[in-house]
Specification:
This protein is of the alpha+beta class. It has five domains: about 90 residues, Uridine Diphospho-n-acetylenolpyruvylglucosamine Reductase, domain 2; about 120 residues, Uridine Diphospho-n-acetylenolpyruvylglucosamine Reductase, domain 3 (2-Layer Sandwich), CATH 3.30.465.10; about 110 residues, 2-Layer Sandwich (Alpha-Beta Plaits); about 90 residues, Alpha-Beta Plaits (2-Layer Sandwich); about 50 residues, no CATH class. α8 runs antiparallel to α13, α13 packs antiparallel against α14 and α15 packs across α16. The chain is globular. Keywords: FAD, Flavoprotein, Oxidoreductase. InterPro entries: FAD-bd_oxidored_4_C, FAD-bd_PCMH, FAD-bd_PCMH-like_sf, FAD-bd_PCMH_sub1, FAD-bd_PCMH_sub2, FAD-linked_Oxase-like_C, FAD-linked_OxidoTrans_Type4, Oxid_FAD_bind_N. Pfam families: FAD-oxidase_C, FAD_binding_4. This is FAD-binding protein. GO terms for molecular function: FAD binding; oxidoreductase activity.
Amino acid sequence: MLSRDVLRDMERQVGTPHVYTRPADLAAYGYDAYGASGMRRLAEAIVFPASTDEVSGVVAVCAAHGVAVTPRGAGTGYAGGASADGGVILNLCRMTAVRALETEAQRIAVEAGLVTAAIHARASAAGLYYPPDPGSSTTSTIGGNVACNAAGPHTLRYGTTVDFVAGLTVVLADGRVARLGEGADAPQLIPLLCGSEGTLAVVTEVLLRLIPAPAARATLAGTFDDMDAASAAVAAITESGIVPAALEFLDRAALDAIAATGAGDVAPGAGALLIVEVEGSSSEVNGHAEAVRAALVQSGARTLDHATSAEEAARLWKLRKSVSAAVAKVQIGKVNEDVVVPRDRVSELVARSREIGLDNALGVVNFGHLGDGNIHTTFLIDPRVPGDRLNAAAAAEQLFETVLSMGGSLSGEHGVGTAKLAFVERQLGSDQVALMRRIKRAFDPTGILNPGKKIPARAPVEGDESEAALEAAGAR
């Protein structure tokens, strides 16, 4: 338990009302979106800073006392990365300011706690565009997006969060503030911090590049008998030379969930839905839309919709955006894994995931970013049923084994957290993991920043206590 002196020092930094220690408050932060797995971890305090200076003060206090610090945004992650065994959860939700919107320079400076959708809205109002749009954009924060290098439907054409980060303000493990990127030092460190899941520094402010809003946009959707036909349509679009802005899919189980909950209109008997969006000049969009339509028809589309207005496009996108809520209504619990496989093996992965679900007596839903092979495989559980959570854990392990055997990746955008730690060395190899540990020690010598996440702990070696001691530091 944190001493009264430590708590008092943190209260001096942020004010007494912004330090929570009551058991009920700690329990509320004992999990993130991965909580359906049954994982619960209790911190010793939840601290709510309102500025970079306050974050710096809190981290400095924790560093002086050897207290672990777990940065947290909205808790929308599915990997257990924002909960903590002891120590302090540093919640940045009070830091929501837009520092500057520079229309001519095409960039926006914001604090880490700002919800991603607010950035989309501010950019759009200025005639600009911020493409990264994770499915949780109405609730996730930009700091969390940077920490996990979030992606979303428009990754295929535009890239992930890191491709739009021009500058960062971060608090280091000893409480010092560093500014990286445009007008600051060491811009080459930005890609290292994006996706580091709070293990190297605490992101407090972000400078984002924006681009001009596309002059025109077309959204098409086609249903198919099965995933093989949908994958054939993707291949046909690729062969045409078009790079869509978005290329999303839902499998039969996802469509069934939407139909069962009335979340959208689904063609009866559809085995897969493909949503394709193209952007650019009016002439480009018209030509690309016709080519996409031809590819969908050629691949056996059962139904075909071509949105001619923003309202019609929103109706088509509603099917994709409503799937998580629909699944939650069909079954009260879910364990959502995001994995990546080569695009030509997506259909194979979907089929294998269904077999895994059957093997473990669980329903399974697949949806995601077919254009870049980033698939959200969701195992449905009822936490009240004995064994369901254990079955989901076994199913996840089988899924990871399958993904690695296909030459894929454990995570596309949700991060490693604690959920995938056991498989990291299998994917990356021991040399890369050893390098990750060295980088971690360089940034965080005493190991207080989000310990136990992202980077697997090294197995102890007899007679070598130095690295084990570093990894154990701050684990209170």
